[in-house]
Each structure stands twice: as structure tokens, then as C-alpha cells.
Amino acid sequence: MEDFLIDYYLWIKAFHIISVIAWMAGMFYLPRLYIYHCDAEIGSVQSETFKIMERRLLRGIINPAMIMTFIFGSLLLAIPGIVDWSSGWIWTKLSMLFLMVGFHGQLSKWRKDFEADNNQKSSKYYRFANEFPTILTIIIVIMVVVKPF
Question: Residue 63 in contact with residue 27, Cβ under 8 Å?
């Protein structure tokens, strides 16, 4: 298995990056849909359309992309010499990843609230929440590329 991982390192890395891009695209877009959904009247055609868009985005893109990110990321971690586990950058990166997964779960909860016509939050709240994955992504990329510590 180790030889396979080493031989296909660049392919695994490429698919990991592709998966991350898809996951983050969805994580950036779904809160934006919530912002617009707040302005739609409950029961309106627009509100029902947002529900469909949100469900399809989460189930069809965000969830599968997150799973693929974890699969390819785990494979990368299994390659000898890729990560120095005594370095601080990997632990910071994994901590930010943990927060990203928590935010993903929160997005899922909010989608269920909208689905049940039970959203209690304002569009301003979702505008603020929309910045959270951006901040996490910036930290993660810096940790992986620069490895500051």
C-alpha cells in the first residue's frame, strides 16, 4: 500500500485539492442562499425554490466533496514523510479543519430550520456567518503552504 501511495502521491494530492475546492465553494455559497432565503416570504414559490437549491447543494455537492476531501486527505497523511507530526502547523491545520466540519454541521442544521419554515435568524446573521469559512480557509492554506511553525 505504501508504494501505491508514493507512486500516486501527485494524483492523490490533485484530487484532494479538487475536493477541497468543491467543498469550500459550497460552504461559501450556502450561507449566501440563506441570506436571500431570509427575504423570501414563507410558503412562496421563491422560498420553496431556495429550499430545493439548499438541499441539492448540501447533499449533492457539499457533503460528497467533504467526504472526498477526508478520503484523499487521509491518504496523504498515510504517505511516509509528508507530515512531520512534531510540527505545530499540522495541528493548527487539523484544528481549523475540525472547526470547518463543525460549521458544515451548523449549515446542515440551518438548512433543516429553513426546510421546516422555522428560521429564527436574520440575513445580517448569515452575512456574518458567511465569513467564517473564509477565515478558516485562509488559516488552513497558510498552514499547509507556508508551514510557519
Answer: no
Tell me the average pLDDT across 99-110: 98
Residue 116 has pLDDT above 90, yes or no: yes
- Cα dist. 125→25, 36, 72, 88, 141 in Å? 20, 12, 33, 33, 26
CA 23 to chain CA mean position, Å:
5
Domain boundaries, the chain: 2-145
Give the angle 93-69-54 at the CA atoms, nearest 5°.
105
How many Å apart are CA 147 and CA 149, to the nearest integer? 6
**Residues with Cβ within 8 Å of residue 15, at least 6 apart in sequence:** 68, 72
Going by pLDDT thresholds of 50, 70 and 90, the confidence category of residue 1 is confident
Alpha helices in 39-87 (DSSP H): 45-57, 63-78
pLDDT for position 25: 98
Nearest alpha-carbon partner for 23 in 137, 142, 144: 137
What is the distance, to the nearest Å, from the Cα of residue 127 to the centroid of all Cα atoms in its chain? 17
pTM across the whole model: 0.93
